[in-house]
Amino acid sequence: MLITFKCRAAPDVMMLENLAQYLVGIVGKRLGERGVIMHDELDVAITKLESAISSDKQERAEHDGHFHEGEDGHEHHEIPIGLAQRAFPFLDMLRAAQKENADIVWGI
């Protein structure tokens, strides 16, 4: 199922429900049928999401040494998309909403 986040300060952001649930959980909310991230909650939400992205990047950097691409006997490994790539549109919306003192809603 697709979840659409709406905000007057940014274009709509659509994502699959499992990713939306994960990202909304990071910022301290629950993905219900309807929801809102109030403009006064955005500072904390942005900080939490940026921190999670930073942690993910650090973990990915530590694991980069585990891929032996190009070595004999090792096949090419597809590196999965990281949190930064998945979360960027949502983070961008959070930042735009913060600048405009706008709320972010879903399910309406």
Automatic annotation (TrEMBL):
| Superkingdom of this protein's organism | Bacteria
Basic and acidic residues composition bias: residue spans: 56-76
Region called Disordered, residue ranges? 54-76
Full protein name: DUF1840 domain-containing protein
Q: Which organism is it from?
A: Paraburkholderia phenazinium
